[in-house]
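step=encode ok
step=design start
structure_in=
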């Protein structure tokens, strides 16, 4: 760890950062997460976010991520989502209202998919809601950046997590200077071409980098459209549990706002379940739909969170539910930044 970890300072930083973020929300959403009680939780007719993993291949081995272990497991196979499964997802999400966001985030780097540009184009032409990509940014060469901007993608979110190359090496590895110039280049291309794409820079707060969080906001706020903060989680105990903060357990927002689809077409209860121990449906089965899964299997898990009878994966999860913020949801951040 670059700087000695001070748990009190860490918790103070988390509190300050997320209070500041909440102040940017409409006033009715400015209450704290602790005040969210089950009776106030409303399940939407359609999921607010469909999270799609396109690839299990990654060009990085970030210490903050489960990928290092995942790719060593005997069950690991480099997999790209097939055109058939992707088409099935787009066809169904195309029937959902514009309030449903399609977000590329999975068990690898989406830009490694050989057909990523065509797939984003297909989504932009096929669904009513927004389309967003999170990326480590290191594969965003000029040609790919231009092609991506041409698709009209709504949001590109770069995972940065540091303001210095030393901290970047600790939490992510890779070349910090390559990443920052890749982001700056993407911003310039977007501006020169007057593309509608909104750009985010994100920071996953954890013991190794919390001292850089405020500085991160200052560095990026004038350059990107939104600086976004997240809380560290341990993939339900699969990597070091280093950022647990004492908090009263509450229902996990993740189950109320997103459906997670892996590259395989399997739907897991939670996006942090990389080992697929919580598969609740498989889109390879022609009878299975996203909406049916949302209304049945997810509903069962939601009831468990309200009654306190947690699904197995959730019972072993110490920090994921803390990271899934009720008010500061990702789809809300996308809506705010694209409405600017
Ligand atoms: S955090 Fe993202 S870029 Fe880093 S190893 Fe995990 S999947 Fe790859
Ligand atoms: S409690 Fe943890 S495992 Fe369960 S849905 Fe939330 S983040 Fe996922």
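sequence_out=
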């Amino acid at each position: 760890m670059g700087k000695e970890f001070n748990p009190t300072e860490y918790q103070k930083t988390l509190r300050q950062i997320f209070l500041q973020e909440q102040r940017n929300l409409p006033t009715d959403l400015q209450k704290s997460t602790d005040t969210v009680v089950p009776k106030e939780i409303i399940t939407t007719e359609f999921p607010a976010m469909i999270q799609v993993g396109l690839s299990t291949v990654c060009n990085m081995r970030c210490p903050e991520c489960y990928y290092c272990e995942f790719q060593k497991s005997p069950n690991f196979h480099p997999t790209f989502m097939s055109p058939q499964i992707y088409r099935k997802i787009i066809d169904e999400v195309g029937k959902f209202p514009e309030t449903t966001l399609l977000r590329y985030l999975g068990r690898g780097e989406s830009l490694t998919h050989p057909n990523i540009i065509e797939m984003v184009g297909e989504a932009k032409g096929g669904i009513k809601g927004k389309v967003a990509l999170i990326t480590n940014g290191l594969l965003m060469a000029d040609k790919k950046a231009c092609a991506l901007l041409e698709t009209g993608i709504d949001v590109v979110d770069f995972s940065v997590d540091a303001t210095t190359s030393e901290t970047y090496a600790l939490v992510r590895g890779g070349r910090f200077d390559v990443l920052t110039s890749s982001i700056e280049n993407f911003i310039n291309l977007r501006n020169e071409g007057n593309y509608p794409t909104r750009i985010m820079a994100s920071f996953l707060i954890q013991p190794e980098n919390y001292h850089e969080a405020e500085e991160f906001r200052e560095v990026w706020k004038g350059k990107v459209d939104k600086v976004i903060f997240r809380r560290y989680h341990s993939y339900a105990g699969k990597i070091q549990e280093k950022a647990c903060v004492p908090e009263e357990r509450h229902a996990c927002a993740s189950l109320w706002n997103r459906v997670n689809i892996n590259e395989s077409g399997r739907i897991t209860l939670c996006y942090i379940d990389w080992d697929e121990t919580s598969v609740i449906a498989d889109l390879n089965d022609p009878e299975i739909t996203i909406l049916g899964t949302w209304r049945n299997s997810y509903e069962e898990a939601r009831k468990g969170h309200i009654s306190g009878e947690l699904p197995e994966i959730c019972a072993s999860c110490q920090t994921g539910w803390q990271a899934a913020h009720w008010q500061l949801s990702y789809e809300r951040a996308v809506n705010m930044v694209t409405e600017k």
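step=design ok
step=annotate ok -> The mean pLDDT is 93.
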